[in-house]
What does this fold into?
Amino acid sequence: MPLQFQAAALEKSLTNSLGLYIHIPFCENKCNYCSFYSFKPSGLQKEKYVQALCTEIKKWGVRNARPINSIYIGGGTPSLLEEKQLESLFSSISENFEITDDCEITCEVNPNSANDFLEYASRLGVNRVSLGIQSANDNELKTLSRLHTFYDAKATISRAKSLGILNISVDIMLGLPDSSLKSLENSVKSILRLNPNHVSAYILKVEEGTPFGKLGDSLNLPSDDEVCKQYLFLCDLLEKNGYNHYEISNFALDGFESRHNNKYWLCEEYIGIGPSAHSFYEGNRFYYSNSLADFLEGKEPVFDSVGGDEEEFIMLRLRLARGLVFKEFKDTFGKDLSEDFFKTAKLLQKNGLVNLSDNKISLTNKGMLVSNSIISKLIYSVV
Ligand code: SF4
It folds into this structure.
């Protein structure tokens, strides 16, 4: 593959298993808050796209000799793929990569398009499903212009379990229009009754160019203060129900952290294939452009940066509850963190924003709410 990237290969990483991300940029309908690259495809577009994915998977297979221990089919809406298309994708992956026996194979699924899909996905080896529930309140689902009800989400989880897919992750959204602590409590408690193994919780961000963005002030959003309360309430409720808050937006029962997502935060390497998919491979970060036409033409990914530097290491480790372990920083970069770093950390500790001990620093739940500003302050005191 003619990628003329800077030679920044990390020797250690070359021996590790990789993650593989496949992007499916198709959606039946555009949700009111969504700014991702996705669109409603024609039958022909789906066919051509799967062919292009298989071609690209083959190219990567020739270039890469490392085993894959995590496959993540994300989107968009992967559950819009038909049986033959998913089969082609999985055949191509298994023909071109060495897959570890314990590989975590996740598919994102929307409750409105999951029924038949789950049957063939489970047969093809999918062992984890990530379900975009977003809310258990049907009025909120309508506001978001989701195409499913909470009943559909419940039925999808039952169907997945009956097919032997027992590792279930769900997405929940906070800070929704007209929401309150009470509506959130109802939503989360209803979702917890479905016993998911993993929960991702995202605060609604109103992006320009989306239908919500166009509504501006007429959207009855909770205040920043109310959104903070919703987040802290959610953290508390999930922790009380046995979910470990292992990353700013992610919670898991013991043993069910997302292997795929952990690769991002632990600076491990992965290959992402599809328009807008990002990769971190042989020390370099790069991405495919946001264009189906470019991808169908076989355009190469675009170099972004050399990855895994001090700044990135600090930023990503601080997203995790395990935090930034000082010895790991020293082992990786051959030096200690600066005195300025610790001065800043102590100030943040006084304000209840970080936990600081002799061997590591991590964000408190309150700190996670303002993670960007804390992480910038800490990085600024290092570089
Ligand atoms: S299903 Fe997901 S990717 Fe598709 S429009 Fe909705 S939020 Fe965006």
Remarks:
- The two ends are 35 Å apart (CA to CA).
